[in-house]
């Protein structure tokens, strides 16, 4: 078994393949290069990225390539299917929420930001995107999961049919290991170095969304980075939700939407027909086989 470790998208990453060492290395390096390409293209931290170019031209029609169109179209479908809670224009709420200073913004701070959110206002076709002036998009809720799927595709193009691409906990399983599923650990939402459970995965994507990545606690309540785009306030019903789906991108989107839907997240996920593990803040949980 060959393990190739690298860093990307502010996360530790690993590609696990079996076979000839040089063949595994060549595939892993090519897959990692694809992850770095996607990071460079869609990072909001890089002034020369495609995402930054689109944001700078908000208010004007901006030409886009086919890959960008596919991602933005996917975001539009997710926005529609989630009743607007999955919104790639909601990233600007980070201007009001500083999780290092541990301060809760008031309505005066949130109101001007909320007025700039609403992905449904953008006009998208295969050639261009037109966003309202002041709108800013962030593909942080899609990028890592999309990259995991693309890296897995590269591994398949190199002839691999079994293995795992792991980008900071967002995974794509190429296929079973000796006809047996991979046992994938689900992070414990209150013990970072422990697994809450092991889920068997034969093939496809697995992703988790939780209240433990960026948060602070105030007066006994946890305030996390998952923010409702309609209110600007954090979710608090679930500690984490992990989803198994045909792709990592779909798994990540479904887990995030379920978190944002709060109490309705469970019934909504059940309607999607996927396997999932939902963990409450008191660590009671619900395991569903779709």
From TrEMBL:
One of its GO terms (molecular function) is metal ion binding. SUPFAM superfamilies: ApbE-like. It comes from the Bacteria. Mg(2+) binds at residues 141, 256. This is FAD:protein FMN transferase. InterPro entries: ApbE (IPR024932), ApbE-like_sf (IPR003374). Its cofactor is Mg(2+); Mn(2+). Keywords: FAD, Flavoprotein, Magnesium, Metal-binding, Transferase. Its EC number is 2.7.1.180. Magnesium. Can also use manganese. Belongs to the ApbE family. It catalyses: L-threonyl-[protein] + FAD = FMN-L-threonyl-[protein] + AMP + H(+). It holds the Pfam family ApbE.
